[in-house]
Specification:
heterodimer, A: 242 residues, alpha/beta, Rossmann fold, six-stranded mixed beta sheet, four-stranded antiparallel beta sheet, 10 strands, disordered N terminus, B: 788 residues, alpha+beta, 3 domains, 22 strands, 20% strand, elongated, binds adenosine-5'-triphosphate, binds magnesium ion
């Protein structure tokens, strides 16, 4: 395993020339074409960029869900891109909270139980009801996904992600399906977690306004990082103009 | 702690409870039949082996006319013999109060004051004979039970022409009579045949055999060659009228028991293997489907940090639960049915103890057999899902790649509607699963055919045997050959309408190195009661010269029409004759040889003598006739054919009916299980597609057509396949059950085919209905959401 690779104490993720190719039949799709970026510890980072620009692919790779075609990924002091499958699993199990673009709730489990799915295996989780309360769903704990609206399902997914007290929280369009009010509730919850536990939080969104609450905004375009903006004065979610 | 994953397990299983139930049932059927058959086989084998061993069942037997006890030493001198016991054995007629007709009996001597060295008696009730006791006998348990005899009851029998009344002091069982068949009988009839034991001293006196014996049993030393001993024994016994000696495997009772065990083995292997394979296939399909459906969930579980092992365990628990449920149900009902079936065998086989013993390895094997392939199938499916990076697994599977179907490639599509084309493409899309479903349904159908065939075959056999071949009402056997003049006496007996004489003689048939003990029956040229039949069941005249052999006997001796067979007569002067085989006849029971009676008398160098008669009688006169027959000491056996048939029907009919019932229920469950599961899976795979079609405006009927069209195609293919497999199974069965005792005629009634088809169709309709109700409930909204 690699030792310190120049990652400062305060950097959670760093990627170096990250590429990802998908080959489907004849054609090769270059989803990432050399992404080099650092994400400081405790930051709330927003990823912006047009559809198909590689945001989800990037998030999946740094979250240990997928492996890069080439390039390096460092998590704290470790070289994530060298992890074995077991190590990646342990990494996801203990360090990462995911909020997926498609929610990915288990339809046969209630909201509470979907959260429980994660607290069952986490080292130091908060109570599922607490996590649900954080996304204002305390009263819907016993409902099945099919009985919840898209936004409610998304909030269950967030509750599931934060319940394990992850070191990093990776959210793929957490507010995509939500109206502004609910969106704010969700963002607030994410920010709370970020502030309260110092959780490094990365949020993909299509809503540029959300960038206002971020410490840092990374702009993606055609598989590359086209710009990084540091926001000295992030505003609270309530003040975001939707 | 229960854990969320386990909750998911329970809910998921509840969601497909219908399918799980169907699999559990099919699997339980397999395990049941397996445990039942092999349990019974085990129990019988074990009981037999222990019984033979503990009660010193002899290895070699011989009967002779009469030899002085002094030659015992000569026999002992034959190398390889470790023990001998000589006996007096005598046929008797037993008169039982309250039974019109006489019963036949066998009276066997017991050494005075001790158990015989060989063929020990198992004392079930009462006591053994005392050394100086007069008029006491031991009675075989079967006969005692059939007549409700108590210890101390008196029993009258005609011994060597004299009527004796004897007291039953003990009720016993003998390893020689596990299966007890009376003289001239085809099936055991405990009411009309009994075995009795009497002190040697008394029996010698009663039948003028002082200091002599007519029966010898031998225990062979471990390493000795049985064939050599038999040969030497025959040489020693020949001057004393010794019949050809025979080994244990030819001993009648043992031979029947062995025969039954062999048949059980065949029957025990067929059905369970089919049931277990089908259930393994079903679990496999359902689990694969389950894993495929939950691909995205598996991806999510991996994404949040569940290990592959934990995820596999989750799905394997489902398999395990099914296996455990099926196992418990199957083992339970297997033990229950096995006990019932073992109990049934106590009607045929008389063992001191016959208890159903279920062997744990058999159980483990049957449960493992059905779980291993399921587990492997599940693991393969999980591996496929787990191999994907979670990010990819969470994405819905890319649309299946459809080809133009075979029919379309042949340019036939213009004959089919759009909907039909969808159906055909689906059938072709998963050829292996389509094939396996077809085979599964086909196999269940073949089990049905097989089950019903048993009944067809037995009915046919009975009809041929009793309505066409043995048409007499009563057959009588004489103690010794009698002059033809007795016919006149018999004709004058009350109610006798016609009489046919028979001369039966025990022989040893030889051809090349093939040989077989049998008896030749001499009949009148054109018998009307006891007839012989050709292949087409037409009555044949008895050939003027030469032998007519039953085809099984001809096969065993490798003889065909026109061959010469060497006949060693096992009677009196024991001439050795060469006789031409002139006819091969068809019969299903036993081994027989027939010839013209006059020619037989001539060949035996005797006058016109007979050993038995067939009678047609007026049933109104049965009472006086039977009374009369009871009084005639010269008559050793009497078989009332109607009674024989009744006894057979009672014993076999009832038991076979039970087997047919079990198989029918099980086979119906299988076909239902396969069809329901296939339909249910089709629905789950295509629920979303079908819902979209509904949204696009297709009627429920059209959607059903697409869904069930595929099933209907499978069933339509399965029916001819099932009929064919069924026929093959029947052929195989007939072949493997083709023994000296029985030939199973391959008779499959149209109704058997019909009923099997009907059961499959009804199962299909029922499954369609159940799945249809789910189609009706498809919620167009949630189906679009993709929540199954
Ligand atoms: N498994 C895959 N196979 C083939 N191509 C893929 C796969 N996953 C992603 N891609 C392609 O890679 C590119 C980047 O995809 P990605 O999902 O990262 O985009 P995105 O920025 O998240 O877009 P969106 O905002 O629409 O979610 C796209 O062109 C996409 O089609
Ligand atoms: Mg995306």
């Amino acid at each position: 395993m690699t030792q310190n690779n120049g990652l400062g104490e305060n950097i959670t993720f760093r990627t170096e020339g990250l590429t990802k190719n998908y080959s489907s039949g004849e054609t090769v799709i270059h989803a990432l074409r050399g992404v080099t970026v650092s994400i400081p510890k405790g930051d709330l980072v927003v990823l912006l960029g047009p559809s198909g620009s590689g945001k989800s692919t990037f998030l999946n790779i740094i979250g240990g869900l997928d492996s890069p075609t080439s390039g390096e990924v460092y998590f704290n002091k470790d070289k994530l891109s060298d992890y074995s499958e077991q190590q990646l699993t342990a990494f996801r199990r203990h360090n990462v909270g995911f909020v997926f673009q498609a929610y990915n709730l288990v339809p046969s489990l209630t909201a509470y139980e979907n959260v429980e799915l994660v607290t069952d295996i986490a080292a130091n989780p908060i109570q599922p009801e607490e996590a649900l309360a954080a996304v204002h769903l305390g009263d819907r704990a016993r409902h099945f996904p099919s009985q919840l609206s898209g936004g409610e399902q998304q909030r269950v997914a967030i509750a599931r992600a934060i319940a394990k007290r992850p070191e990093v929280l990776l959210c793929d369009e957490p507010t995509g399906a939500l109206d502004s009010e609910t969106g704010i509730v969700v963002l607030k919850a994410l920010q709370d977690v970020n502030k309260k536990f110092g959780t490094t939080t990365i949020i993909i969104t299509h809503n540029a306004a959300i960038a206002d609450m971020a410490d840092r905004v990374i702009y993606f375009g055609d598989g590359q990082v086209v710009d990084v903006k540091v926001n000295e004065n992030p505003c609270p979610p309530e003040e975001i103009s939707w | 702690m229960i854990g969320a994953l386990n909750k998911k397990l329970v809910r998921d299983m509840w969601h497909i409870k219908g399918q799980i139930l169907a699999i559990v049932m099919v699997m339980a059927c397999g395990i049941t039949t397996f445990i039942m058959s092999f349990g019974v086989l085990d129990s019988l084998t074990l009981s037999r082996d222990v019984y033979y061993d503990r009660y010193q069942f002899a290895d070699v037997f011989a009967q002779l006319k009469r030899a002085p006890d002094g030659i015992k030493q000569q026999v002992m001198d034959i190398p390889g013999i470790s023990a001998i016991e000589t006996r007096v054995v005598f046929g008797v007629t037993v008169q039982v109060d309250g039974m019109a007709e006489p019963a036949s009996g066998k009276l066997i001597s017991v050494p005075d004051g001790r158990q015989p060295l060989l063929n020990n008696l198992y004392l079930s009730r009462g006591r053994m004979l005392l050394p100086d006791e007069d008029d006491a006998i031991l009675c075989s348990e079967a006969f005692a039970i059939a007549h409700n005899f108590m210890l101390g009851d008196q029993i009258s029998m005609i011994i060597n022409g004299h009527k004796r009344t004897l007291k039953i002091v003990g009720i016993v069982l003998s390893p020689e009579y596990v299966y007890s068949l009376g003289p001239g009988a085809m099936f055991p009839d405990d009411k009309r045949f009994g075995v009795f034991w009497m002190s040697r001293r008394l029996l010698e006196a009663a039948v003028d055999m002082d200091g002599a014996f007519n029966d010898i049993s031998i225990r062979v030393a471990r390493a000795a060659n049985v064939e050599d001993i038999k040969r030497d024994l025959d040489i020693v016994l020949k001057p004393y009228g010794g019949l050809i000696s025979y080994a244990r495997k030819e001993q009648m009772s043992n031979w029947f028991v062995q025969n039954e065990l062999d048949q059980l083995w065949v029957m025990g292997i067929f059905a369970p293997i089919i049931f277990l394979s089908v259930s393994a296939f079903l679990i496999n399909v359902v689990m694969t489907r389950q894993v495929t459906t939950q691909r995205e969930q598996i991806g999510m579980l991996k994404a949040v940090g569940y290990r592959n092992g934990e995820i596999s365990t989750h799905y394997l628990k489902m398999v395990l639960l099914i296996v455990v449920l099926g196992g418990i149900l199957g083992v339970g009902s297997g033990i229950w049915l096995g006990m019932g079936m073992t109990n049934m065998y106590t009607q045929f086989f008389h063992f001191p103890i016959l208890k159903f013993s279920f062997s744990v390895p058999v159980m483990i094997f049957s449960v493992l057999f059905s779980s291993v392939s399921a587990v492997i199938g599940t693991l393969i499916a999980i591996r496929k899902a787990a191999k994907l990076p979670p990010a990819e697994a969470m994405r819905p599977e890319t649309p299946v790649y459809f080809r133009r179907s075979l029919l379309e490639m042949m340019g036939l599509e213009k004959f089919f509607s759009h909907l039909t084309r969808i159906v055909i493409r689906h059938v072709e899309r998963r050829p292996i699963r389509t094939l396996l479903s077809t085979i599964g349904i086909g196999l269940s159908m073949s089990i049905l055919i097989f089950a019903f065939f048993m009944e067809d075959s037995i009915n046919y056999m009975m009809a041929v045997q009793f309505d066409m071949a043995q048409r007499e009402d009563v057959s009588l056997g004489f103690v010794e050959p009698r002059n033809m003049s007795v016919l006149e006496e018999i004709r004058l007996m009350p109610g006798v309408m016609s009489v046919e004489p028979q001369r039966s003689v025990a022989v040893f048939l030889k051809s090349d190195h093939y040989s077989k003990r049998a008896s030749i029956m001499g009949l009148s040229p054109m018998p009307d009661l006891h007839r012989i039949l050709d292949k087409n069941l037409h009555a044949l005249p008895i050939p003027e010269h030469g032998l007519a052999l039953s085809s099984k006997l001809a096969d065993l001796l490798h003889l065909k029409k026109g061959d010469i067979v060497t006949v060693e007569v096992l009677e009196d002067r024991r001439p050795i004759l060469n006789i031409k085989v002139v006819e091969i006849i068809e019969d299903f029971i036993g081994l027989s040889a027939f010839m013209n009676r006059e020619e037989l008398n001539m060949l035996l160098n005797e006058g016109a003598v007979i050993t038995g008669v067939s009678l047609m009688v007026d049933p109104l006169w049965n009472g006086p006739l039977f009374q009369k027959i009871k009084e005639i000491p010269a008559i050793i056996s009497m078989n009332i054919l109607k009674k024989v048939r009744e006894v057979f029907q009672e014993l076999m009919g009832e038991n076979i009916l039970k087997m047919v019932m079990i198989n029918t229920v099980f086979a119906s469950l299988i076909s239902f299980g396969v069809i329901y599961n296939t339909a249910r899976i089709a629905l789950s795979e295509r629920g979303r597609e079908l819902a979209s079609l509904r949204v696009l405006g297709l009627t429920k009927g059209e959607v059903a057509y697409i869904l069930f069209g595929e099933m209907a195609v499978i069933i339509l293919m399965a029916i001819p396949a099932g009929l064919f497999i069924g026929y093959l199974m029947v052929l195989g069965m007939a072949q493997s059950m083709d023994t000296e005792l029985f030939r199973v005629p391959v008779i499959i009634e149209k109704s058997t085919y019909g009923l099997s088809v009907i059961i499959v169709v009804v199962s299909s309709v029922l499954s369609f209905y159940l799945v249809w109700r789910q189609v009706e409930n498809i919620d167009l909204v949630s189906a679009q959401k993709g929540v199954e």
